Amino acid sequence: MRRSLNHQAACIEDLRMLAKRRIPKFAYEYLTNGCNSNQAVSANRQALDALYLHPRYLTSCETPEISCNLMGQQYAAPFGVAPVGLSGLIWPRASEYQARAAHQANIPFILSSLASISIEQAAENAKDNLWFQLYPPTVDEICEDLLRRTWEAGCRHLVVTIDVPSPGYRPADIRNGLSVPPKISARNLWQSMCCPAWSLNTLRNGVPQFATMEPYLPSDANLADVAHYIRNTLKKVVDLPTLKAIRKMWQGKLIVKGILTADDAKRAIGAGADGLIISNHGGRQLDAAIPSLHALAKIRSSIGSDTSLMVDGGVETGVDLARYLANGANAVFAGRAFMYGMGGLGEAGATHTIEIFQRELQQVMEQLRCPAIADLPRFLK
Ligand SMILES: Cc1cc2nc3c(=O)[nH]c(=O)nc-3n(C[C@H](O)[C@H](O)[C@H](O)COP(=O)(O)O)c2cc1C
After folding, report:
1. Per-residue confidence at 58, pLDDT binned at 50, 70, 90?
2. If you average pLDDT over residues 102-121, what whole number do you get?
3. Ligand 1 pocket, residue 356 CB under 6 Å
4. Minimum mean pLDDT among 35-39, 176-180, 312-316: which range?
5. How far is 227 from 337, CA to CA, in rounded Å?
6. What is the CATH number of the domain that holds 239?
7. How far is the CA of 315 from the centre of ligand 1 (A)?
8. Which listed residue (228, 281, 294, 352) is catalytic?
9. Beta carbons of 363 and 318 less than 8 angstroms apart
10. Ligand 1 pocket, 112 CB below 6 A?
11. Does residue 97 have a pLDDT over 70?
12. What angle, 0 to 180 degrees and rounded to 10, lies between the N-to-C axes of helices 336-345 and 348-368?
């Protein structure tokens, strides 16, 4: 079985090409596109491509160790699954499969507030590998209830996303009717019919929902009600007082996602963050955003080594993982790559994507003669 999976997809690019064939065009474009002219997506890629690593062939090195300790918890590898909203649109039950695979591989899995499975379902599958990503709601009682549910589900890592003060401007989604509420056009139906495995699975599992948010919606909510809720009840702007208020309410690890400047990094740490995710949201929010790699290097040199710094954006290979780790990240997340695994191979893609990253990272480190993750920064020069 494994052997045939490797034949179908030996790398993330293979998974992307498979996904492109197997999921409808509107879903593929929702996943791959950034905002405006896709400049920030390209900038993430270009920044990674421009970073060279320097092997030390004449040094002896044991088999590299890729396990890591992140904020007190031991993980098998320094990478994890980034939160992706509307995950069921890419592949039905994608988040459930990913959560289970992440637990089996012992890597972090971040569930989006807007994923298609609930915190409780994610916790059943990811267990103590679950991190929950919060778009803080405007209604305090809903925010408190979400934090209570997160804690009671056994999740101890809360990721607060701060980089969505306004919805990203994504022309492809507008053209495809993926606005809120979604428009079911003849074109979308035709694209779905051209992808029978996706359509059959979607029919079997139902239209993707915002499962975590369902309890707060009116019981007979239609699409327009959901749209109204998303627009008005999810807080658009996370300012410092909001972050401090969440810190007071949450006794687990607090991680702030969407940091791109040293100033914001210091503010978040001052507000009590245990970890930061340097991210430009995969280029989906600000087309002129600094690439995550450049932001990471600046922030690491400005805040020192006390705070856990994580990063995401444009990761397609184990080489990319090594590049981010060499620039001072303690761990790296990927969004699209894991979703290509789902779109390309369905359930089997969850574990397969993790295995590709593990294998590739291990190989890069062997090639560099780098014994451990913490040693990677030495290979920048
Ligand atoms: C389709 C899609 C949906 C996303 N949804 C969310 C979300 O609900 N919450 C969030 O914090 N980030 C979200 N992100 C951003 C990712 O968590 C992550 O920052 C980004 O995907 C990293 O870039 P990469 O996809 O190139 O790896 C989303 C990204 C994509 C591609």
Report:
1. very high
2. 97
3. no
4. 176-180
5. 28
6. 3.20.20.70
7. 12
8. 281
9. yes
10. yes
11. yes
12. 130
Q: Determine if ligand 1 sits within 6 Å of the CB of residue 345.
A: no
Please tell me the predicted confidence (pLDDT) of residue 236: 67
Could you tell me if the CB of 312 is within 6 A of ligand 1? yes
Estimate to the nearest angstrom the gap between the alpha carbon of 46 and the chain centroid: 20
SS3 content of the chain, % helix, strand, coil (to 5): 50, 10, 35
For the chain, the domain total comes to 1
**C-alpha–C-alpha distance, residues 8 and 355, integer Å:** 14
Q: Which domain, by its residues, includes 139?
A: 2-380
CA-proximal residue: ligand 1, atom 8 (nearest): 85
Identity of the residue numbered 30: Y
DSSP structural state of residue 289: P
Instruction: State yes or no: is 352 an active-site residue.
Output: no
Q: What is the chain's length?
A: 381
Residue-averaged pLDDT of the chain: 94
pLDDT at res. 180: 60
Which atom in ligand 1 lies closest to the alpha carbon of residue 257?
11
Query: Does 381 score more than 90 pLDDT?
Result: yes
Q: How far apart are CA 144 and CA 68, in angstroms?
A: 32
Q: Tell me how far the alpha carbon of residue 185 lies from the centroid of ligand 1, in angstroms.
A: 25
CB distance 80 to ligand 1 below 6 Å: no
Question: Taking 70 as the threshold, does the pLDDT of residue 119 lie above it?
Answer: yes
**CA 367 – CA 362 distance, rounded (Å):** 9
Ligand 1 center from residue 85 Cα (angstroms): 7
**What long-range pairs does 373-377 form, CB within 8 A, spacing at least 24?**
373/65, 373/66, 373/67, 373/68, 373/78, 373/325, 376/322, 376/325, 376/326, 377/325, 377/326, 377/327, 377/328
Ligand 1 center to 284 CA (angstroms): 8
**Atom number, ligand 1, closest to the C-alpha of residue 312:** 22
